[in-house]
Amino acid sequence: MSDNAILDKSSDFAVRVVKLYKYLCEEKKEYVLSKQLLRCGTSIGANINEAQAGQSKADFIAKMAIASKEARESKYWIDLLIKTDYLNKHDVHVQTLVNDIEEIVKLLTSIVKSSQGNS
């Protein structure tokens, strides 16, 4: 873990999403919902990385807010994959994936709110 927990968590989550995408395509022959999750799930870390090089406080907040929206969208697609029986909510991998994205959403919400409060 580096000094930046949200960078690490978003990167680890992106790796899990890529692996989940491969699994859903190869094993479940599911291509539509998983592609949506792949896009937003990998976008979280990309936006957080961009925010680190933000040209201003407003730029930082904007990028982190986008990352937060992408995290919420990722949670939506994971929930939909569970509700449509592509993922089993009782599977330990699925449970930890849900826990991870919920934690990322909370962290990003906190970062955006505190950054806005400090500006």
Can you characterise this structure?
By secondary structure, this protein is mainly alpha-helical. The protein has one domain: de novo design (two linked rop proteins) (Up-down Bundle), CATH 1.20.1440. 82% of the residues lie in helices and 0% in strands. It is built from four helices and no strands. The longest helix has 27 residues. The model has no long low-confidence stretch (mean pLDDT 95).
Features:
119 residues; de novo design (two linked rop proteins)
How much helix is in the residues?
Answer: over 70%
Largest sheet: none
| Mean pLDDT metric | 95
| CATH fold title | de novo design (two linked rop proteins)
How far apart are the first and last residues' alpha carbons, in Å?
28 Å
Layout of strands and helices, then pairs:
Blueprint: H1 5-27, H2 32-52, H3 57-83, H4 92-118
Helix pairs in contact: 1-2, 1-4, 2-3, 3-4
Characterize this entry briefly.
The chain is mostly helical and 119 residues long.
